[in-house]
Amino acid sequence: MSAAVLTPGANTTLPAAQRIRVAVGWQPTQVPGMEVDASAFLLGAEGKVPDDAHFVFYGAPSSPDGDVRLDTDAGDLIGFEIKLATLPARVASIDICVTIHEGQARSQRFGDLERVFARVLDGDTEVARFELPTAGMQETAITLLSLYRRHEQWKVRALGQGFVDGLGPLARLYGVEISEEQRPPPAPPKPDTAPVPAPAPVNLSKVTLEKRGHSVSLEKQQDSGFGEILFNLNWNQHSGAKRGGFLSGLLGTDSSAIDLDLGCLWQLENGQTGVVQALGNAWGHYQGPPFIVHGGDDRTGAMAEGETIRINGDRLSQIRRILVFAFIYEGAPNWAAADGVATVRLPGQPDIEVRLDNPSAGQGMCAIALIENDAGRLKVTKEERYFRGHPEMDRAYGWGLRWVAGSKD
Q1: Cα 292 from Cα 272, distance rounded (Å)
Q2: I want to staple 165 with a disulfide (CB 3.0 to 4.6 A). Which of 59, 169, 212, 344 is the partner?
Q3: CATH number of the domain encompassing residue 76
């Protein structure tokens, strides 16, 4: 059965599958200085998101129940895995959009590309595709597809609707509260009632630390602290193709896997030091010292999000510094092939991105970033320094730990 080729306004019925995949791409794939993002909006019958958590994008890569997930490391494609069978009834449709990051500020538009496209797949079988020529387009945002329910059946409609503004204004159209917008002060609470705190708005900005030694400091936005700080590492799971994820079959990843492990050295204000990592089952603790916990070891590539360390930002006053590192536990020490990217995420703050884009051959360990308590501020510095192993890195940063050979269960 051949795939349905859609034109703007056309639709087709989706197969009765447990899940489908939508892959989004554009040509040419590389335009100097242009950054294209994809997002999905899970909408109710009125065409608005039920809440901000139903907006899936680079800053929030999964819907609340995990029914829609984003994979940003699939080569020149950005993909969504959508579990149609388990989507709650209040989700009437899902709009798939593409946007140019800071397109207006950089005087970029979709007319600078030849086309954008979306492909809908059931397993590895393409069931529908939509290609939109973009020559002459002045817009910086496009709604490509809409997946929607009709008589207990899912269908897909090609849209190709462009918007002059970028992701922020587009998200507001769908009912998402964006932190970039100035708001009037809230009305005072009525007597004898306690004010209800508003949920934190979605922050679309992101900061990229380009060179070693570059840093950024963030002020806490609530009295209790920074909330949960997530340090995520994602990488190419195979030496010849982008990281596995759900598009690995489409992209033909068949080379040897790289087992890249995330960990950190920590030092508390009382001088206590240690390590959090999968090696030796040193998983850490979130509520108690060191207030850092490992999110789990990804040895098979099944975790599309890579590996994550969680830091209790409400206890930052008890933490002096954290050196986040990665090492290649299995596979050739080829950091260029791994193409790692680390992202620091915390509530109400811009994402901080650290790319491992200056790899050193033959060294199995990389000190990625240093996180410090800077007089109550959260300071993140790009390190990207490569070492033979743990002892060499420890000496370079003066941690003073004793190291013995270890293994993972």
Answers
A1: 13
A2: 169
A3: 2.60.60.30
**Cβ neighbours of residue 267 closer than 8 Å, sequence gap 6 or more:** 273, 319, 320, 321, 322, 399
Residue type, 372: E
The rounded distance, in Å, linking the Cα atoms of 231 and 27 is: 32
User: How distant, in Å, are the alpha carbons of 53, 210, 399 from that of 220?
Assistant: 22, 23, 27
Please answer whether residues 144 and 167 qualify as being in contact, where contact means their C-beta atoms are separated by less than 8 angstroms. no
* Tokens describing residue 27: 């040509």
Question: What distance in Å separates the CA atoms of residue 237 and residue 254, rounded to the nearest whole number?
Answer: 10
pTM: 0.53
- d(C-alpha 97, C-alpha 198), whole Å: 27
Q: How far is CA 31 from the centre of its chain?
A: 22
Contact yes or no for 292/281 (Cβ under 8 A): no
Domain that holds residue 113: 4-173
Contact 387, 325 (CB under 8 A): no
Count, in order, helices (H) and strands (E) of the chain.
4, 25
Nearest to 232 by CA among 344, 368, 353, 381: 344
Residue 237: both structure tokens together:
């799971």
Q: For residue 135, count other CB atoms closer than 10 A to its CB.
A: 10
Q: Answer yes or no: are the C-beta atoms of 335 and 368 closer than 8 Å.
A: no
In a domain, 406, yes or no: no
Contact assessment for residue 220 and residue 226, using Cβ atoms and an 8 Å cutoff: yes
Taking the C-alpha atoms of residue 261 and residue 280, their distance in angstroms, rounded to an integer, is: 12
- One pLDDT digit (tens) per residue for the chain, 409 residues: 678 999 988 999 998 877 899 999 998 877 877 888 899 999 998 899 999 889 998 878 889 888 999 875 556 788 999 999 899 999 999 999 999 988 888 889 999 999 999 999 998 899 999 999 998 888 899 999 999 998 888 999 999 888 877 888 888 889 988 764 433 344 454 444 445 555 556 666 678 888 888 888 888 766 668 889 999 988 765 444 333 444 333 333 333 456 778 999 999 999 999 999 988 888 999 999 999 999 875 544 444 467 899 999 999 999 999 999 998 876 656 787 777 889 998 887 888 889 888 887 778 899 999 999 988 889 999 999 999 889 999 999 999 998 876 555 5
Say whether both 219 and 155 belong to one domain. no
Considering the domain boundaries, does residue 200 fall inside one?
A: no
Q: How far apart are CA 241 and CA 73, in angstroms?
A: 10
R_g of the chain, CA atoms, integer Å: 22
